[in-house]
């Protein structure tokens, strides 16, 4: 039995899969921001009760966490000391000399303080050049005095990031040895271990971020393991990486920077699985939760991987699934600007506590979920009757917004939803239209607790059909964790012109990286038959500032021939990406080896329908607000919808973990895999 756990801003979602019976159980419990491990333990207890099993029966727990992300966003990380090469103490302050915004954006830029302060930074004598050659000797005596001064000042973690350590880490390791001898309790991260690549600022800030969140992540993982053991669970705990892979809890404690986008990864993984199992290979992942909405592109059944991301104002150069997030969710608060008297929605969120007004937990400001309640889209009870909503409270709160704007509660609620939809539409346009992709050539997969409420409206705006609502949309991210594979990336910067270069220099280095990859697979206890090794080279035209990653098959690596075919493939990819190829020499930048370990797929039997007709699925008829008027709208139980039966809109389709809004001029039907597909009526004409 495998358990997936996704901690969100409002709810903690859990999915338990029994590989023997091929049954899946789900549960949602309120998140506990003060200590996420409390909500996780409560959710584990709840799902075990639902499945009728003993907690000891769970063999593997796969957990996506926002602990690292929140620590950076909220500025609540550890106090980090930083050792750099002498003369480079201002690396984090200089950054990339980039300012946000349009022309003159620098005038109003509020530049954030670095994650490691200048007062906690020390310059170490000694220097390597870009080829890994020592050009200034390492001064161990001076370094020891600087380390004693810094580590004795009360820092909680230490980052060592020296110039060109990617080419030769000897000086960094010498510093680490001194710290280990004199201050063994201080955790240390080496930039040559965390990110052995060139570009000084990227390497430094990524390693500092690792240390900034490391003590917090270590404490969190310790707490969650203690709470799970208290519940009688002694199974292995694995954490989901930002690129959708898995890592052990111990590895996550040492390299938490690889978990900064852990939460959204599960939903993207599940969307990939839907693309591979259905006829829809081009899909947009639309994950709307309580605090934010995450969107991503699946093209030809494959996710888009980025080599870097941003957490708040800071870059992090780690492999991530290319996910865009906006501050629009079910808990996003609506208010009226005192200055412009206009309606605003988000990015402030009611979170899990107090939550939207309709949750009845003390919230007073109306949120997007309250607007859905006012319009009749959300029923008075959720989670199979476990959660009752305060309908009158939501109407009163939204009504106050309406009074300020001179609108009825219904029109104010519609305005809240329209603005929230526009915010999310902007994110979807960024990943499609702004990249030259036509959204009309994609379907949209709706998940997250609020995704199916808004997905039909998003599809109508973008023209992307069908809307695919999976079997368990409210807990799809947790389900995706169950299908994540073990993954780690090993890279070596190797900057050389390919003109006249001996190809053996490349193939031999691939062998070294593959050796490291196999050691990692051994440490994760991945069976031989489940292992995959992939190779790639980062290439660019000489004088270019950025590179293109070119995949290489194993046969090419083992043949150890010339690089001609690889260079031609680079030219083709460059032309495909940018519409041009050049006749200038090609430069090699880095080698990459990605090791993966497959996990068992989630094979779930599609549940037999409990109804034989649309009438059997009818729960009740309730008024809902569509196109400016109240309409008596049928509410259906999804579990009782027969396959192939068309559900005409407008309609509300309810299930345990979410509610689906089917707009007018649309219809819905179940396909063979249990997914609910929403199409415009015009499709049949």
TrEMBL record:
Top-level taxon in the UniProt lineage: Bacteria
Domain Hydantoinase A/oxoprolinase: 203-488
Domain Acetophenone carboxylase-like C-terminal span(s) in chain numbering: 507-673
Biological process, per Gene Ontology: glutathione metabolic process
Hydantoinase/oxoprolinase N-terminal domain sequence ranges: 2-181
InterPro entries: ACX-like_C (IPR049517), ATPase_NBD (IPR043129), Hydant_A_N (IPR008040), Hydantoinase_A (IPR002821), Oxoprolinase-like (IPR045079)
GO CC terms, sorted: cytosol
A single MF term (Gene Ontology): 5-oxoprolinase (ATP-hydrolyzing) activity
PANTHER family: 5-OXOPROLINASE RELATED, HYPOTHETICAL 5-OXOPROLINASE (EUROFUNG)-RELATED
Protein known as: N-methylhydantoinase A
Species this protein is from: Puniceibacterium sediminis
């Amino acid at each position: 039995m495998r358990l997936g756990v996704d901690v969100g801003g409002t709810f903690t979602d859990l999915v338990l899969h029994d590989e023997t019976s091929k049954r899946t159980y789900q549960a949602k419990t309120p998140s506990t921001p003060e200590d996420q491990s409390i909500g996780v333990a409560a959710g584990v207890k709840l799902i075990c009760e639902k499945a009728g099993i003993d907690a000891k029966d769970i063999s593997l727990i796969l957990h996506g966490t926002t602990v690292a992300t929140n620590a950076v966003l909220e500025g609540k990380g550890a106090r980090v000391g930083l050792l750099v090469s002498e003369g480079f103490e201002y690396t984090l302050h200089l950054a990339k000399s980039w300012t946000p915004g349009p022309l003159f954006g620098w005038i109003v830029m509020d530049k954030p303080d670095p994650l490691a302060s200048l007062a906690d930074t020390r310059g170490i004598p000694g220097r390597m050049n870009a080829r890994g050659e020592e050009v200034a000797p390492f001064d161990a005596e001076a370094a020891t005095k600087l380390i004693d001064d810094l580590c004795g000042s009360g820092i909680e973690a230490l980052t060592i990031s020296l110039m060109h350590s990617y080419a030769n880490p000897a000086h960094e390791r010498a510093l680490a040895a001194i710290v280990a001898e004199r201050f063994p309790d201080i955790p240390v991260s080496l930039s040559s271990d965390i990110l052995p690549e060139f570009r000084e600022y990227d390497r430094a800030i990524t390693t500092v971020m690792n240390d900034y969140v490391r003590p917090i992540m270590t404490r969190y993982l310790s707490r969650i393991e203690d709470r799970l053991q208290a519940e009688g669970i002694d199974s292995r705990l694995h954490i989901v990486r930002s690129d959708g892979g898995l890592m052990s809890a111990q590895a996550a404690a040492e390299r938490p920077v690889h978990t900064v986008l852990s939460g959204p990864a599960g939903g993207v993984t599940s969307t990939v699985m839907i693309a591979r199992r259905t006829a829809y290979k081009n899909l947009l992942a639309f994950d709307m939760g309580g605090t934010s909405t995450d969107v991503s592109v699946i093209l030809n059944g494959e996710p888009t991987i980025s080599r870097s991301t941003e957490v708040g104002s800071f870059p992090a150069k780690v492999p991530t699934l290319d996910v865009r997030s906006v501050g629009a969710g079910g808990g996003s608060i609506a208010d009226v600007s005192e200055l412009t008297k206009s309606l605003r929605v988000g990015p402030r969120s009611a979170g899990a506590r107090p939550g939207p007004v309709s949750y009845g937990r003390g919230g007073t400001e109306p949120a997007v979920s309250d607007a859905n309640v006012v319009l009749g889209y959300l029923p008075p009870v959720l989670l199979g009757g476990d959660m009752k909503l305060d309908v009158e409270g939501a109407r009163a709160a939204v009504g106050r917004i309406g009074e300020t704007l001179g609108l009825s509660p219904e029109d104010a609620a519609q305005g809240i939803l329209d603005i929230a939809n526009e915010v999310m539409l902007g994110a979807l346009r960024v990943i499609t239209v702004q990249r030259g992709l036509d959204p009309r050539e994609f379907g949209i997969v709706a998940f997250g607790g609020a995704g199916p409420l808004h997905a039909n409206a998003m599809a109508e705006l973008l023209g992307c059909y069908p809307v695919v609502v999976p079997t368990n949309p409210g807990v799809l991210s947790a389900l995706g964790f169950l299908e994540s594979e073990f993954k780690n990336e090993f890279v070596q910067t190797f900057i050389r012109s390919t003109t006249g270069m001996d190809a053996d220099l490349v193939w031999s280095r691939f062998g070294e990286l593959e050796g490291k990859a196999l050691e990692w697979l051994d440490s994760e206890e991945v069976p031989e038959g489940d292992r995959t090794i992939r190779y790639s080279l980062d290439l660019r035209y000489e004088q270019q500032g950025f590179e293109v990653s070119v995949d290489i098959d194993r046969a090419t690596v083992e043949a150890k021939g010339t690089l001609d075919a690889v260079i031609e493939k680079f030219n083709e990819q460059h032309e495909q990406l940018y519409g041009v190829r050049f006749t200038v020499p090609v430069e090699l930048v880095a080698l990459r080896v990605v090791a993966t370990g497959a996990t068992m797929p989630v094979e779930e039997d599609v549940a037999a329908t409990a109804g034989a007709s649309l009438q059997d699925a009818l729960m009740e008829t309730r008024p809902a607000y569509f196109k400016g008027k109240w309409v008596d709208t049928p509410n259906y139980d999804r579990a009782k919808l027969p396959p192939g039966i068309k559900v005409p809109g407008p309609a509300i389709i309810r299930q345990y973990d979410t509610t689906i809004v089917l707009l007018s001029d649309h219809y819905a039907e179940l396909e063979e895999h249990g997914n609910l597909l929403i199409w415009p009526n015009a499709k049949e004409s």
